[in-house]
Specification:
elongated, alpha/beta
């Protein structure tokens, strides 16, 4: 039995399809079939049953897979470690970000981070504000990129920048040519906003109350891009962060005032921080990115500083 036999077995167990398993292991289907047969003959058990055109893993196959899969992963980690430059960091960073930051900022920061730290595994998840708080407190995340959480919690919040929220309408909307709009002018205006469970929506509702305005919220959507697409095709207006998205064609942005809704994005982590240099390095990259315009030209401005934040 050779290592390649186990890799072929693992690929077939994962796909249960000879064609896909052969593609994954870069061999012909006949070669894969022959290698699996050799492995079965050497072990003296059937690992797969062929039922018509279907491939089904046997009980013996399941038992072998449970032992082989972790071993193959460890072998891959060991082999890949040889290509990591001496002195490079190893480990993992688990990041949770709300949609606004996961669209552009997080991917660019991850790309810059990995370019100098190939030995680090990064897991980045798009989550709601509430889920980020929950998973940071339960140690399921290392770092959050979101807004200041409400209520009692065991987290540190480090503000990154202040972001004004703006009105978005399609180019044919009566407000499209305005330079700015007072919040009171949105009274009875048909709108689409985030649901009331979102902190941003709660903040907007407070601004409406302060201005004595009550918009007609006829649609609630929990993600921004579908909301913008809805605005593009209807007479609805919406309110989003000015830096959070790249507007599609056909939409106009109008400043809001009296009052101007302002959000403060920041870094979130468990109270007391972390001594993990990888987490500190990623946090440093996010800081530098937001200082220069929400993640533009990261490599050009040297965002790979690994000094302690």
């Amino acid at each position: 039995m050779e290592l390649r036999h186990l890799r072929y077995f693992s690929a077939l167990a994962d796909t249960l399809n000879f064609t896909r398993a052969a593609d994954r292991t870069h061999v012909t289907q006949s070669t894969l079939s022959h290698q699996i047969k050799q492995l079965e003959e050497e072990l003296g058990v059937r690992l797969f049953d062929r039922i018509g055109k279907r491939v089904v893993i046997t009980e013996a196959g399941d038992t072998l897979l449970a032992q082989v899969a972790p071993a193959l992963r460890q072998i891959d980690i060991a082999v890949n470690s040889l290509s990591i430059p001496a002195g490079s960091m190893v480990g993992s960073v688990r990041i949770g970000a709300t949609y606004s930051f996961n669209t552009r900022l997080v991917p660019q920061c991850v790309a810059s981070f990995l370019s100098r730290n190939p030995g680090i595994r990064v897991t980045a998840e798009e989550l709601s504000q509430a889920r980020i708080v929950e998973r940071l407190e339960s140690d399921d995340l290392d770092l959050g990129i979101a807004y200041r959480p409400e209520g009692k919690h065991e987290l540190w919040f480090e503000p990154l920048y202040n972001e004004e929220m703006v009105l978005v309408v399609n180019n044919e909307h009566p407000l499209a040519k305005r330079r700015c709009v007072r919040m009171v002018e949105l009274h009875n205006v048909r709108m689409t906003l985030l649901p009331k469970t979102f902190n941003t929506r709660q903040q907007l509702d407070e601004c409406f109350r302060a201005a004595g305005a009550e918009p007609l919220v006829v649609a609630e959507m929990n993600t921004i891009m579908p909301m913008l697409e809805l605005i593009r095709h209807t007479d609805l207006a919406g309110i989003v962060g000015e830096k959070s998205i790249q507007l599609p064609d056909g939409l106009s942005v109008v400043a809001l005032e009296n009052p101007t809704p302002i959000r403060t994005p920041g870094l979130l982590w468990k109270r007391g921080g972390s001594d993990d240099i990888a987490i500190k390095t990623f946090a440093s990259i996010v800081r530098r990115a937001t200082e220069t315009g929400a993640g533009k030209d990261l490599d050009r401005i040297g965002l790979l500083d690994t000094s302690t934040p």
